[in-house]
Specification:
- This protein is α/β, with parallel strands linked by helices.
- The protein folds into 2 domains: about 5-220, Spore Coat Polysaccharide Biosynthesis Protein SpsA, Chain A (Alpha-Beta Complex); about 225-330, no CATH class.
- Helix content is about 45%, strand content about 15%.
- The longest helix has 25 residues, at about 250-275.
- The protein starts with a strand and ends with a helix.
- About 45% of the residues are buried.
């Protein structure tokens, strides 16, 4: 059995997939497989991936989906195909250092944790500069209680993302943790939150080994041109809220979803519409009774994140002011 299965969802990333795969082929770690799941790319991404992998000494598999279904379905397909003891999801435009898999594997084994994550940085395609995100672990520690980490995650401290976490595959299977079908934005947050809720501990590699690349083709950049996709984020937190409630989660976790994540997602539906000049969509959003109800939950965020409470107040009681505020922000960066 391979020790790690690396699953890569691929969609129209012809210019970057070769670099991502080359990073994997340079790993100092032995005993892993690569599973590329092409999500019906139209730019030759799958052929580029195949050309890079031809002749590789490690096991690899290229799966081609007949129709575009989104990263969630692509990752789930790869997860179903994986044979490794652990699984590592890597986006087709991100980069990893040669020691990444070895460090994550050793950390997971040394702590017996079902989840291990490393630091990452957000940067451009040149890999220069950028901002580092690493969990501030004390020198004497190598793991953290996963519920503690989940609370930090729900407070907006995103130390984990789609490409910097190693999961024990049996743990995922035992807890039926999969990416949400049909979800095309923030799907990794739901997956990560469920994993942290079910794990007792998470292993921490404080060093920055993953480079999260920001460029024009990335989904988070496309949000400005299609703000309605933030509806997927609302769905993420509605499902997560139900999931936690059904499993008798403690009151603090439910409070963080109710007062921070759910209202923030609803508010972003409106503010992203304002930023992109979709005034019709802005008013449709703030006039929705359901979204007003969700945004209104943000009034409970004042003790933790006053800015969420302030935006919730504007969303519900002064949407015109919220519109002017974010229209001006959009104009200031043009």
């Amino acid at each position: 059995m391979n020790r790690i299965s690396v699953v890569i969802p691929l969609y129209n990333q012809q210019g970057s997939i070769g670099k991502t795969l080359s990073d994997l082929l340079l790993q100092s770690f032995d005993g892993f497989e690569i599973i590329v799941v092409d999500d019906a790319s139209t730019d030759g991404s799958a052929d580029s991936a195949e050309q890079t992998l031809l002749g590789a000494r490690i096991r690899w598999n290229l799966l081609r989906l007949p129709a575009n279904r989104g990263a969630s379905e692509a990752r789930n397909t790869g997860l179903d195909t994986a044979t490794g003891e652990a699984v590592f999801f890597l986006d087709g435009d991100d980069r990893i250092a040669p020691e990444t898999l070895a460090c994550l594997w050793n950390s997971m084994k040394n702590t017996a944790a079902p989840v291990a994550f490393c630091g990452f940085r957000v940067c451009g395609e040149s890999l220069e500069g950028g901002k580092n995100y690493a969990f501030p672990l004390s020198p004497a520690s190598s793991s953290i209680p996963s519920r503690q980490l989940l609370r930090e995650f729900l407070r907006g401290k995103r130390y984990l993302n789609a490409s910097n976490v190693l999961y024990n595959r049996s743990f995922l299977q035992a807890n039926s943790i999969r990416f949400p079908r049909g979800c095309r934005f923030a799907e990794d947050r739901e997956f990560i939150a469920k994993a942290l809720f079910n794990a007792e501990t998470a292993a921490v590699v404080p060093d920055t080994h993953v480079s999260y690349i920001q460029h024009e083709n990335q989904s988070t950049c496309r949000m400005a041109r299609d703000p309605s996709k933030y509806a997927h984020e609302v769905g993420v937190y509605l499902r997560l809220r139900k999931y936690l409630e059904e499993r008798k989660a403690d009151a603090e976790l439910l409070y963080l979803v109710d007062s921070l994540e759910l209202p923030s997602a609803a508010i972003r539906m409106a503010t992203s519409a304002a930023r992109s000049g979709r005034i019709d969509l802005f008013w449709k959003t703030v006039r929705s009774s359901r979204l007003r109800e969700l945004a209104g939950l943000g009034r409970g965020a004042w003790p933790v994140k006053p800015e969420v409470g302030f935006k919730a107040m504007l969303f519900c009681h002064a949407p015109g002011l919220l519109l002017r505020l974010y229209t001006r922000k959009a104009e200031s960066v043009r």
